[in-house]
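Hi there,

I know you've been waiting on this one. I reran it after we fixed the sequence typo, so this is the corrected version. Both the input and the resulting structure follow.
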Amino acid sequence: MSLEQNLREMERGREAYWLRYPATSPVKLRWRALAVRHSFHVLPGESILDLGAGSGLWTRHLAAVLRGEALITAAVFNRDLWETAAREPLPNTSFVHVTDIGRDLPAESFDYVVGTAILCHDAYGLNLWHIHRLLKPGGQILFFEANFWNPQVMLKGAVRALRRRLGYPSCQVGMRKYQLMHMTSHHGFTHVETIPYDIVHPMLPRSLIRFVQSIAFVFEHAPLVRELCGTLYIWARKPAALPSPRPRPSLAR
């Protein structure tokens, strides 16, 4: 399949996944949005590309935690999901239907590119090349992707019949930590970090999430156990001799 076909399939599969777990999905999506804010220290007026935004389930959390002060471009690959997302206006957020990532998104236009469960497919190397092109010099990325060593992810990858039955994309793959670091560096990124993240199972009752959160934080930092987390957090930077100047808003305001 082409990269755009992969992205459409990943976006649709990811959308179905988040909707399948209404008790835990909003909490997990907010955690990830907060991770974006704290990892980047986003300033008002800086630009963020949400790659594979779907119907805007995660984009809403991004806009909320950034208080509508960042300029968010939400790239949607499925037209029906784009039509759904565009009906709900968010502050300083524009939803864009993308059919060709190389043509529809201009090069060096974004301070940050983020995504969740959109990079873990069999053409992710080409995907990283396009993401590097889209970033301004000195720009950063943050993605949350399926961890190959998580038992559930490993089982879905090994048993194709199970993957089809559960409705997962045929192009989806689990991400191996060091292979992902190598590929990211190969495409020109520096300061690459891949960290196991989020050991909380999506079927956990919502009433237990707050109780389990502190315990989960301990497990996410425990040797060996942390490697079983369901997600890898991938952060990297596009190098620049002279990084793009950052906005200088009034901190008092």
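Quick highlight: The mean pLDDT is 89.

Best,
R. S.
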